[in-house]
């Protein structure tokens, strides 16, 4: 079979599949558009009619109410309009089940459209008087959808036939088309190291295919080796060398991620009060064995509760901690008692009956890392007063601001745009020492003009469904800042998971991109590694949309515990910003140096710029520069 015939058959089949998929997607999208349009129309009608009826709802028997409802009903294509009072008693009902002819029953069954109903509460003199329900008749939408499907099918078939004819003419002229190999090469550049399974029959093309398959597999092997190296180095960076427990820096990341996800949890602070005495009485080897045994007790406790997420940490010396997620107060009591029993046994082996005290505190979205630690240490002091090897669970949530005040603050600040932006984490390029990026961070002040912790503020805004409005406001402020100050570098803007999943925000953003190219030229949408790892599919979909529009994205606070290299390959971010724990100390830690070096090699292969965050020392800064990453903030 000639190459011309092979390519003709192959491309024809692919083209037919694409047309079929495009047809299905287009019809589905148009159906979604009609449903969205109907929802908006119904809500607009309900809102405007509700406002018009408001002055007359003092007397629900007023005939002008029905006159106005009838007028609106006759002007549109509605299934029914219904007005009920506060007791759900029907005051007015006007309906019409008129349907359009010409739409086959099978079409309506295959593309079912939901009946769209919108409602609006009607108030008069600050009192709710009734509720208005407006239902759209779907028959008109079915008619439009059916007409669109017929047109699309006709055009698709006509395009397919014309394309086949044109393709036949082109393939007769040229036999050098290597589209399949070209597509594979493009996939390799995107980080998808696939191979062509069935080799072409033509000798020359077959040899080229074998060569590109070999290249793809070699790059894939290199990436796999880098991934294994990153996993091994990352694990060593996260854990304490002696005890094998997570370091305090990991706890700080975990607690921030936990509060961002507004997930309730409990925090244990565990202090070995007898450690100074043991150090005086025993040698270093014996103390190391003791700390390992104590760490083993903590790990054993974690394993006893498989349905609860427990992470053990060693802060320093004889100070340890547990972070318990998805646990209730009964389980917390059980964990504390189990620890008490295990530690008492260990204390007997070392002739220290009073070995440790434990403070336990509740964690939620309005906490800050400092308030959590302060509360835990207070609970620990209470435990010391109780007795030998005691624990104390702080039951009262001692927050700096109660939840009602937080809600009021969030609504006032976001609705009135009563917040400002500060620009942090200024990334300097190593190559030319130029500023290439800075991050926009919201600042909120309370009624006493005191700066509010932004973490709890964001968490409450997400819970109250106000985060989309906040993110829109931040984007608009950043655009004003770029335009007003003639900014030429990139600005990183953080977006919440609730924002990127919001269809209204996506439509708003797409419209904004069309009228303001600065969105794609200078704004970099930024997401934390923890958030992305929790909702990979949602972020992948949003990143694809942003890339399709020509925009850029960044994954920040990257560490090996939250996300693997395979996810990075599938997400294809433009920037990765390493966590500050990895960036700092690189000049004195061979493990950190090798980890960042492997990240830079991976970034080079996948065309991802690697950045460092908040580098403190000059020695670390120049070590990062020698590795060859793109830039760092100080």
Task: Give an account of the 3D structure.
By secondary structure, this protein is α/β, with parallel strands linked by helices. The chain contains 23 helices and 17 strands. It has helices at residues 3-53, 63-75, 105-110, 139-173, 179-189, 203-238, 248-260, 275-281, 284-303, 329-349, 369-386, 403-415, 454-463, 467-485, 497-500, 503-515, 518-522, 529-534, 536-548, 565-571, 580-583, 590-606, 618-627; strands at residues 78-85, 90-95, 117-124, 127-136, 265-272, 309-316, 319-325, 356-363, 391-394, 420-429, 435-443, 490-494, 523-528, 552-558, 575-578, 609-612, 631-633. The chain has an 8-stranded mixed beta barrel with strand order 10-11-12-13-14-15-16-17, surrounded by 4 helices. A 5-stranded mixed sheet has the order 6-7-5-8-9, sandwiched between helices. Helix 5 packs parallel to helix 6 and helix 6 (203-238) runs antiparallel to helix 22 (590-606).
Write the layout of secondary structure elements.
Elements: H1 3-53, H2 63-75, E1 78-85, E2 90-95, H3 105-110, E3 117-124, E4 127-136, H4 139-173, H5 179-189, H6 203-238, H7 248-260, E5 265-272, H8 275-281, H9 284-303, E6 309-316, E7 319-325, H10 329-349, E8 356-363, H11 369-386, E9 391-394, H12 403-415, E10 420-429, E11 435-443, H13 454-463, H14 467-485, E12 490-494, H15 497-500, H16 503-515, H17 518-522, E13 523-528, H18 529-534, H19 536-548, E14 552-558, H20 565-571, E15 575-578, H21 580-583, H22 590-606, E16 609-612, H23 618-627, E17 631-633
Parallel strand pairs: 8-9, 11-12, 12-13, 13-14, 14-15, 15-16, 16-17
Antiparallel strand pairs: 1-2, 1-4, 3-4, 5-7, 5-8, 6-7, 10-11, 10-17
């Amino acid at each position: 079979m000639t190459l011309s015939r092979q390519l003709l058959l192959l491309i024809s089949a692919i083209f037919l599949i694409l047309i079929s998929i495009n047809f299905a997607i287009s019809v589905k999208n148009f159906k979604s558009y009609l449903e969205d349009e109907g929802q908006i129309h119904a809500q607009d009608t309900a809102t405007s009619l509700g406002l018009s009826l408001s002055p007359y709802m003092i007397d629900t028997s007023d005939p002008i109410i029905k006159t106005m409802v009838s007028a609106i009903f006759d002007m549109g294509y509605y299934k029914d309009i219904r007005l009920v009072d506060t007791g759900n008693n029907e005051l007015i009902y006007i309906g019409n089940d008129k349907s359009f002819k010409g739409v086959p029953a099978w079409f309506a069954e295959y593309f079912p459209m939901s009946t769209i109903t919108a409602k609006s509460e009607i108030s008069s003199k600050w009192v709710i008087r009734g509720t208005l329900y407006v239902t759209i008749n779907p028959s008109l939408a079915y008619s439009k959808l059916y007409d669109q499907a017929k047109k699309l099918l006709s055009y698709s078939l006509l395009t397919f036939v014309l394309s086949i004819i044109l393709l036949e003419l082109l393939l007769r002229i040229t036999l050098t088309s290597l589209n399949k190999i070209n597509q594979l090469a493009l996939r390799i550049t995107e980080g998808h190291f696939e191979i062509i399974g069935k080799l072409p029959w033509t000798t020359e093309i077959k040899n080229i295919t074998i060569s590109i398959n070999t290249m793809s597999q070699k790059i894939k092997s290199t990436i796999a080796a880098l991934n294994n190296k990153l996993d091994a180095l990352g694990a060593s960076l996260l854990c304490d060398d002696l005890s094998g427990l997570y370091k305090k820096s990991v706890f700080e990341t975990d607690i921030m991620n936990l509060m961002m996800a507004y997930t309730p949890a409990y925090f244990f602070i565990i202090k070995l009060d007898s450690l100074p005495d043991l150090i005086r009485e025993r040698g270093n080897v014996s103390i190391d064995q003791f700390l390992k045994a104590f760490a083993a007790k903590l790990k054993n406790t974690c394993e006893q509760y498989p349905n609860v997420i427990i992470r053990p940490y060693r802060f320093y010396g004889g100070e340890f901690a547990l972070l318990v997620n998805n646990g209730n107060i009964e389980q917390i009591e059980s964990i504390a008692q189990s620890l008490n029993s295990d530690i008492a046994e260990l204390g007997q082996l070392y002739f220290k009956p009073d070995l440790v005290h434990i403070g336990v505190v509740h964690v939620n979205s309005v906490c800050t890392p400092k308030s959590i630690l302060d509360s835990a240490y207070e609970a620990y002091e209470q435990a010391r007063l109780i007795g030998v090897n005691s624990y104390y669970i702080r039951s009262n949530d001692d927050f700096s601001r109660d939840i009602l005040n937080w809600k009021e603050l969030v609504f006032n600040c976001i609705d009135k745009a009563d917040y400002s932006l500060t620009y942090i984490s200024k990334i300097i390029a190593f190559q030319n020492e130029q500023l290439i990026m800075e991050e926009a961070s919201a600042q909120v002040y309370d009624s006493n003009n005191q700066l509010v912790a932004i973490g709890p503020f964001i968490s409450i805004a997400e819970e109250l469904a106000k985060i989309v409005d906040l993110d829109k406001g931040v984007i608009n402020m950043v655009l004003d800042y770029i335009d007003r100050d003639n900014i030429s570098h990139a600005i990183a803007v953080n977006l919440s998971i609730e924002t990127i999943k919001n269809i209204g925000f996506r439509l708003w953003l797409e419209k904004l991109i069309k009228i303001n190219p600065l969105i794609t030229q200078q704004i970099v949408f930024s997401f934390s590694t923890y958030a992305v790892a929790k909702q990979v599919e949602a972020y992948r979909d949003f990143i694809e949309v942003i890339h399709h529009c020509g925009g850029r994205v960044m994954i920040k606070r990257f560490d090996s515990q939250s996300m693997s290299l395979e996810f990075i390959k599938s997400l294809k971010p433009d920037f990765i910003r390493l966590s500050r724990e990895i960036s700092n100390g690189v000049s004195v830690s061979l493990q950190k140096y090798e980890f960042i070096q492997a990240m830079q090699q991976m970034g080079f292969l996948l065309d991802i710029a690697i950045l460092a965050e908040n580098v403190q020392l000059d020695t670390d800064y120049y070590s990062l520069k020698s590795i060859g990453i793109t830039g760092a903030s100080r």
